[in-house]
């Protein structure tokens, strides 16, 4: 019985020991090295597009704000801007509204080249570095309005 126990222990030790090359042998194995780069984007918007203080509302008055998009290389994206909280429901015309009332001042949102900002947005492809988009606000109102503060809120969305 004792002889059987010693043989069983020797056999177990042999099975549990990893294979090793003899003095003249070589063992080669491979190992995968992996990296998963995920699609990612960031959107940076200014806190406000400000027409400043004026004495009269003059059509053609402009102001500019820059929005920045940074996506991993080759990531397609679309930058969209809604019509704002006070847009005309029929025409979609963007409007600044008096903070103390319902009087409005019409304005347009343009791309840097004076083309209207498209409803479907502006498409691009990520490069890994920031890509800037100039947004030009332009007053189109020709009728004078009462003194006061006028505001709107635009929602800027980045789809990728």
Topology of this structure?
Elements: H1 2-16, E1 41-44, E2 62-71, E3 76-81, E4 94-98, E5 104-111, E6 122-125, E7 131-139, E8 150-151, E9 156-159
Antiparallel strand pairs: 1-2, 2-7, 3-6, 3-9, 4-5, 4-8, 5-7
Keywords: Signal
Pfam families: SCPU
InterPro entries: Spore_coat_component, Spore_coat_U/FanG
Helix content: under 10%
Report Rg: 33 Å
Q: Proportion of β residues?
A: 25-35%
CATH topology: Immunoglobulin-like
Mean pLDDT: 88
Query: Any guess at the CATH architecture?
Result: Sandwich
Number of helices: 1
Low-confidence stretches: 1-17
Number of domains as seen in the coordinates: 1
**How far apart are the termini?**
73 Å
Structural class: mainly beta
Largest sheet: 6 strands, antiparallel
Count of individual beta strands? 9
Give the strand order, joined by hyphens, for the main sheet. 1-2-7-5-4-8
Write out the CATH superfamily name. Answer: Fimbrial-type adhesion domain
CATH class value: Mainly Beta
Topology order in helix (H) and strand (E) letters = HEEEEEEEEE
Q: Estimate the global geometry from the Cα principal axes.
A: rod-shaped
Brief summary:
By secondary structure, this protein is mainly beta. Helix content is about 10%, strand content about 30%.
